[in-house]
Design a protein that fits this description.
The complex is a heterodimer of chains A (about 90) and B (about 350). Chain A is mainly β and about 90 residues long. Chain A has strands spanning about 5-10, 15, 20-30, 35-40, 50-55, 60-65, 75-80, 80-89. In chain A, a hairpin with a 3-residue loop joins β7 (about 75-80) and β8. Chain A is elongated and about 70 Å long. Chain B is of the alpha/beta class. Helix content of chain B is about 30%, strand content about 25%. The interface of A and B includes residues 17, 21 and 68 of A. β2 (about 15) of chain A pairs parallel with β3 (about 25) of chain B, so a sheet runs across the interface. Chain B: InterPro entries: GH.
C-alpha cells in the first residue's frame, strides 16, 4: 500500500493585511482506483432496464489544514482531487 | 513568517504533508506634508499619520532637524517615518556665494553653486550645486555638515536626493556656462547621485537610514534614464509623485501611471524596491470634490499593491501648491478618513 500525495500552493507569497488568500491543495492516493457499480432493474417478466453506472469513492482521503499564525482556513470547494481554501491575511 | 500545513490521511493512517509559507505585509503608511515645511503636528492629531515628507537644501546650514523645527524630532521619536528630501537646489542660505564653515573641527569651503535648473522659459532659473561640482568633491563639506546634524537626531530617516529630477531637467540645465540637454542632465545626475549615496554610505549612519532619488515620474524616458540598476542597487525605494489635475484623472490611473512604466522598463533590482510616494495631491480647481477624490485613494493603492510589481509603501499627501486642501477642514477630514481604512490599517 502506498502513501497518499499532496501539494499546496498559495495565490501569492506576500499579502496585504485584510486581503483574501487562496490555497489550492492537490491530493490523491496511488491506491485509489475507480469503482463503478452498474445497476440494472429486472422485473418478473424478465424486462431489464437500461444499466445505470454509479461511481463510488471507497475510503476517501481526509484533508486537514492548519496555520501556525492562527488564521482559519475555510474550504471553498473540493472535488476529491483538488480542494480550495480561503483565509484573510 | 506564517506557515500553512496541509495533511492528507488515508484509511490506513498513512499521511502526506505539504507546507507553504507566506508573508503579510505592513499596512501602507499614510503621510503628510504641510506647506512651507510648517509644523504639521496639529493637522496630524487624531489621524493615522505615520509618514512625513520634508525639504531641505544642502545650502542650508540647518538641515536636521531644520531651523526652528524641534517638532520634527518629537514626531520622529514618536515613530513617524521621515522622508527628508535633500536638494542640490540652492535655498535657505543668506546668499548664493561660497560658504566657509566648520564641521566637527574640520573647516570646509564650498564654492558658489554653478548650475541652473528648471530652466522654464520666461522664469528665473533656480541655482543649484552642479553635478560636476559634486563629482569634483567640492560639495563634500555640505554632505559632512548634513551628516553631522543627522547623527544628533536620534532616529533613521530616508534621504531622498533631489525633489524631482525630471522637473529640474525638463528644459535642460547649464553648469559653468555649458548647456546640457534633458537626457544628458539625467545622465550627469545619476553620476552625482551615485557619488552622494556612496559618500554617505562610506560613513557611519544612524540605524534605519535609507536612500532614494527624487523623480516626479511624469516622463517615461526620464524615469528609465534615472533608474539604472547600478544606482538602484544602492537605493531602498522607488519614488514618484502623484497629482490629479484634471476632472478625468482617477486615483487608480494617477497612482499607476509611473508604476506601469517602471514595471515595463526597469530591471529586477529596481522592481524589488518598495515605492515611496513623497507627494500626492488633488488640485481643487479641476477637481472641486477634492474630498471625494481622496476617498478613492485607499482602494486604488490596495488594487495596485495586489498586482505584480513594486509595492506602494508610503503615500504622503502634499498640502501645498497643487495639493492644497481647500477648504482645509473638509480635505483634512477626508484624508484622515482615507488613512483609517485598508490598506492604511
Amino acid at each position: 500500500m502506498a502513501a497518499p500525495t499532496v501539494t499546496a500552493a498559495l495565490n501569492a507569497t506576500v499579502f496585504n493585511p485584510g486581503e483574501t488568500m487562496t490555497l489550492m491543495v492537490t491530493y490523491g492516493d496511488p491506491d485509489t482506483r475507480p469503482v463503478t457499480v452498474t445497476i440494472v432493474v429486472t422485473d418478473a417478466q424478465g424486462n431489464r432496464s437500461a444499466p445505470v453506472d454509479v461511481v463510488a469513492v471507497i475510503d476517501p482521503l481526509t484533508l486537514t489544514v492548519s496555520d501556525d499564525s492562527g488564521r482559519t482556513w475555510s474550504k471553498v470547494s473540493d472535488n476529491g482531487a483538488v480542494a480550495a481554501y480561503r483565509a484573510v491575511a | 513568517m506564517p506557515r500553512v500545513t496541509v495533511t492528507v490521511r488515508d484509511n490506513g493512517g498513512r499521511t502526506a504533508t505539504a507546507t507553504v509559507d507566506y508573508t503579510v505585509g505592513q499596512p501602507v503608511l499614510g503621510g503628510y506634508y504641510l506647506s512651507g515645511g510648517a509644523d504639521p503636528t496639529a493637522d496630524m492629531a487624531g489621524g493615522n499619520f505615520r509618514s512625513l515628507t520634508q525639504y531641505r537644501s544642502f545650502a542650508d546650514g540647518y538641515i536636521f532637524p531644520g531651523y526652528n523645527r524641534p517638532w520634527l524630532v518629537t514626531l520622529g521619536r514618536a515613530g513617524i517615518k521621515m522622508n527628508m528630501v535633500l536638494e542640490l537646489k540652492h535655498y535657505g542660505a543668506p546668499n548664493t556665494g561660497p560658504q566657509t564653515f566648520t564641521v566637527d573641527g574640520v573647516t570646509y569651503t564650498v564654492p558658489a553653486p554653478a548650475m541652473t535648473i528648471q530652466q522654464r522659459p520666461g522664469t528665473t532659473w533656480p541655482r543649484a550645486y552642479g553635478y560636476s561640482q559634486v563629482l569634483a568633491g567640492q560639495c563634500d563639506g555640505l554632505f559632512a555638515r548634513a551628516l553631522s546634524q543627522y547623527r544628533t537626531l536620534g532616529f533613521g530617516v530616508n534621504i531622498q536626493l533631489a525633489s524631482e529630477l525630471d522637473t529640474d531637467h525638463e528644459f535642460g540645465t547649464t553648469e559653468a556656462g555649458v548647456s546640457y540637454s534633458w537626457a544628458s542632465s539625467d545622465a550627469r545626475a545619476v553620476q552625482a547621485m551615485t557619488y552622494i549615496v556612496n559618500w554617505f554610505k562610506a560613513r557611519s549612519l544612524p540605524a534605519g537610514t535609507t536612500f532614494s532619488v527624487g523623480v516626479g515620474g511624469f516622463d517615461r524616458a526620464c524615469y528609465q534614464r534615472t533608474h539604472p540598476e547600478a544606482l538602484m542597487a544602492k537605493l531602498d525605494f522607488l519614488q514618484w509623485n502623484v497629482y490629479a489635475t484634471s476632472a478625468t484623472h482617477t486615483a487608480l490611473a494617477r497612482f499607476r501611471r509611473t508604476k506601469d512604466w517602471a514595471v515595463a522598463d526597469l530591471g529586477p533590482v529596481a522592481l524589488s524596491r518598495p515605492v515611496l510616494i513623497a507627494e500626492w495631491g488633488v488640485r481643487v480647481a479641476e477637481v472641486p470634490n477634492q474630498a471625494g477624490w481622496i476617498a478613492t485613494v485607499p482602494a486604488a493603492v490596495a488594487a495596485l499593491n495586489a498586482e505584480r510589481g513594486p509595492r506602494i509603501a508610503r503615500t504622503n499627501y502634499f498640502n501645498s501648491g497643487w495639493g492644497t486642501l481647500s477648504p482645509k477642514s473638509v480635505g483634512l477630514a477626508a484624508l484622515k478618513a482615507a488613512y483609517a481604512v485598508r490598506p492604511y490599517v
